[in-house]
Every structure is written in C-alpha cells, then in structure tokens.
Amino acid sequence: MKLNLYQYLISGIIIVGAVLSLFSQNGFAEPTFTGDAAADFTGPDVVTIEDLTNDVGIPAPDFPPGSMTGWDMR
C-alpha cells in the first residue's frame, strides 16, 4: 500500500510539472524578423561562419561576377 502511494505521488508530480511547463513564457516566444540580416542575427547566441570564397555555388547557370543573386548576404 505504501509503495502505491509513492507511485501516485511521483506520477502526480511529473504530470503537474509537465502541464506547468506547457504554460511557460519561453514556449510562446516568437522570433521577430525585420528582413535585415545584420540586425536580425546579432547577439551572444549568434554563430557567424565566414564563406571563404564568397560564393555558395547557387544558382546555376553561373551569374556574372559581382551580381547579386538573392542568396548573397552580408
């Protein structure tokens, strides 16, 4: 009987914790994008990887040098 009481108590704590975690404010946070990559992706959590050749190889056929393709970001 004592073992069943502990099982119900632990199960209840887990269920209450799961339900309360659904209502945490972090779960409802939405990112806000302005369309400016330099402004949108700043902060301590941002990882920046520099492109060595400044060409991601998209799109085909090749565009003339210096043209913007829409895949180029600063």
Structure, described:
The chain is mainly α and 74 residues long. The mean pLDDT is 74.
Give the arrangement of secondary structure elements.
Blueprint: H1 2-22, H2 37-40
Total DSSP helices: 2
| Unreliable spans | none
N to C succession of SSEs: HH
Radius of gyration: 25 Å
- Classify the oligomer: single chain
Strand content: under 5%
Number of strand elements? 0
Terminal-residue CA separation: 67 Å
The computed structural class is mainly alpha
Biggest sheet features:
none
Mean pLDDT: 74
Give the helix level as a range of percent. Answer: 25-40%
Described by the principal axes of the CA atoms, the overall outline is: elongated
Short characterization:
With 74 residues, the protein is an all-alpha fold.
Features:
mainly alpha; 2 helices; single chain; 74 residues; 34% helix
